[in-house]
Amino acid sequence: MPDSSASLEAQVTTAHALSTVCVIIPTFRRPQGLATALASVAGQTDIAHLSLSVIVCDNSPEASARAQAEAFAATAPFPVSYVHEPATGVANARNSAVAACDSAFIAFLDDDEEAPAGWLGKLMATQARFAADVVFGPVEARLTTPDTAYNGYFTRFFSRFGPAQSERLTSYYGCGNSLIRRACLPQDHAPFSVEQNDMGGEDDQLFHSLMLGGAVIAWAADAPVFEDVPPARARLSYTLLRAFAYGQGPSYTAALTGKPFTTAAWMLQGTAQAVIFGLLGLILMATGRKTSAARLDKAARGLGKLVWMPPFKVGFYGTALLKPKPRGR
Questions:
Q1: Which InterPro entries match (predicted)?
Q2: What are the backbone dihedrals phi and psi of residue 230, each rounded to the nearest 5 degrees, phi first?
Q3: How far apart are CA 218 and CA 132, in angstroms?
Q4: Which of 3, 159, 173, 184 is found 20 to 30 A from 286 (Cα to Cα)?
Q5: Helix, strand, or coil here: 180?
Q6: Could you tell me the CATH superfamily of domain 8-229?
Q7: What angle do CA 202, 329, 83 make, to 5 degrees?
Q8: CA geometry: angle at 202 spanning 59 and 91, to 5°?
Q9: Where are the domains positioned within the chain?
């Protein structure tokens, strides 16, 4: 006869493993944002059925968040680990944090995001409802600048919208405010591509590969987080440059994976997009229309698809963060 006590122990172990979740917060020189993110995790409700832990992965070379993370850990009601990844790069930080995590589920929260009280429990509930490998939730931007003609555009730019109801998805979003079943991540290599360290898009590559591999992806409509947008980012000079970088992603990835015809198709589409929306955006801006920003955004993304080559690749992470900022910014 099978050993019933051993079987029961295995069931208990499995049940415990399925209830463990680690919130990973990568950070780079944002002490106030990190404090807000950590406090919001500490304020989570309806998680008595979860075994919660937190990993703060500090990506600054000087380990600037160490003291802050250790001070939080001293009073936190759950285990808090500090990981220092001195090699700057968003993929480096996420890979190091994932390597340090042994929970069944990983939730990603950025260091400029704040999670409402029921956030984590709702992500986990959506995961259970759809037996999902990956769950995404909404991101609601909070501007800290005075009202301007383009604040509506800025709010949309920094927010993440999705279906009105929780459901299974046939697409994917970015890593901030996501939940991943750890077992679905590749075991033979780091999940996030280090080639994307400076430019971002490492999460898109991962989720695209998981989707192609048959991963179940779901949307938790009731699990939003808030993203605080500083004045330096709520400017057209920033968002249009970032839109250009977003546009570079598809062409760059196609070229990187040896798909010349796909690359050419993206470039052709980008050319038409840049010309049509560029002209329309400039006309609307000349006549004082608020909608000009959205059209220029599309034009910038189109231009990025055309001008994707490495010499023109725009970086917002990694070594780009170490460059001195111009005065007045």
A1: Glyco_trans_2-like, Glycosyltransf_2, Nucleotide-diphossugar_trans
A2: -75, 160
A3: 6
A4: 159
A5: strand
A6: Spore Coat Polysaccharide Biosynthesis Protein SpsA; Chain A (3.90.550.10)
A7: 40
A8: 20
A9: 8-229, 236-322
pLDDT tens digits, one per residue of 85-107: 999 988 999 999 999 999 999 99
Residue 170: Cβ within 10 Å count: 6
Contact 202, 193 (CB under 8 A): yes
Encoded amino acid at 300, one letter = A
Residue appearing with tokens 């780091």: 190
**pLDDT of res. 9:** 38
- Which residues are within 8 A (CB) of 85 and not within 5 positions of it... i.e. 6 or more apart? 57, 58, 59, 92, 93, 96, 97
Sequence-distant (≥ 6) Cβ neighbours of residue 220 within 8 angstroms: 122, 123, 125, 126, 135, 136, 137, 166, 179
Q: Which residues have a Cβ under 8 Å from the Cβ of 291 and sit 6 or more positions away?
A: 284
Q: Are strands 20-27 and 105-108 parallel, antiparallel or unpaired?
A: parallel
Determine whether 20 is exposed, middle or buried from the number of CB atoms within 10 Å of its CB (0-12, 13-18, 19+). Answer: middle
Give the pLDDT confidence of 146-163 residue by residue, as tens digits: 777 899 999 999 999 999
Region 47-56: mean pLDDT is: 95
How far is it, in rounded angstroms, from Cα 132 to Cα 184? Answer: 10
Q: Would you say the C-alpha torsion 232, 145, 301, 291 has a positive or negative sign?
A: negative
pLDDT, residue 317, reads 55
Q: Give the side-chain half-sphere CA count within 13 A for 106.
A: 24
Q: What percent of the chain has pLDDT over 70?
A: 89
pLDDT band at residue 145 using 50, 70 and 90 as cut-offs: confident
How many distinct helices (H) and strands (E) make up the chain? 10, 11
Q: What is the pLDDT of residues 189-221, one digit of tens each?
A: 899 988 777 766 788 889 989 999 999 999 999
Location of structure tokens 């990835």: 253
